Amino acid sequence: MSENIENNNLKKNSEAVNSMYYTIGGMVYYFLIWILSVLIVRISGYEAAGIFAVCMSITSSPAVVALYNMRSFQVSDIHGEYSNKTYINTRFLCAAASMLFCLILILIYGYDFHKASIIVAYMVVKACEGIADAYYGIEQMWGRMDFSG
Q1: How far is CA 13 from the centre of its chain?
Q2: Whole-number Å distance between alpha carbons of 40 and 46
Q3: Alpha-carbon distances of 56 from 1, 70, 90, 97, rounded to whole Å
Q4: Nearest Cα to 127, choosing from 88, 87, 95?
Q5: Are the CB atoms for 19 and 143 separated by under 8 Å?
Q6: Are 18 and 137 in contact (CB under 8 A)?
Q7: Buried b (16+ CB within 10 A) or exposed e, 79-108
Q8: pTM
Q9: Residue 36 contacts residue 44 (beta carbons within 8 Å)
């Protein structure tokens, strides 16, 4: 049996329970992003909200590199052709590439240090989200989406 599956000593959840956890977790995540936007406007004003909008816009293309949908392939690898470490390392490589892509865009557009630091901070969050997705794939293979949800 593959390393991907035999390392799990936990009881698997049903598909319905996994779907519920994952759906609720996703809804909470997107709600918190919305709340963040609202708080930025309320606390810091429209100028800060504009910077945040630029930040989200600039990071959208590099985030595609960090967040590409590898998990479909990962969870279908039921024979363990590739190890969990391979999937995780691939995500780290994609996260690094996305950070480099983001830095190049910052240089091309010539953002000042304040805006660039906000963009980089947001890109770090998106890169970490991509890395976490590899771990979510492992949890999905184990039938434990409650952890990632």
Answers
A1: 23
A2: 8
A3: 42, 22, 24, 18
A4: 95
A5: no
A6: no
A7: eeeeebeebbebbeebbeebbebbeebbee
A8: 0.77
A9: no
Higher per-residue confidence, 56 vs 149: 56
CA distances from 51 to 96, 110, 111 (A): 24, 14, 11
CA distance 61 to 98: 8
Cα–Cα distance measured from residue 52 to residue 49, given in angstroms and rounded to the nearest whole number: 5
Percent of the chain scoring above 70 in pLDDT: 85
**Mean pLDDT taken over the chain:** 84
Q: What is the pLDDT of residues 9-65, one digit of tens each?
A: 566 667 777 678 778 878 988 899 899 889 998 999 999 999 999 999 999 999 988
Q: Which residue has the higher pLDDT, 45 or 71?
A: 45
Pair of tokens at residue 124: 């770090």
What is the identity of the amino acid at 45?
Answer: G
Tokens of 25: 């977790």
- Which residues are CB-neighbours of 9 under 8 A, at least 6 positions away? none
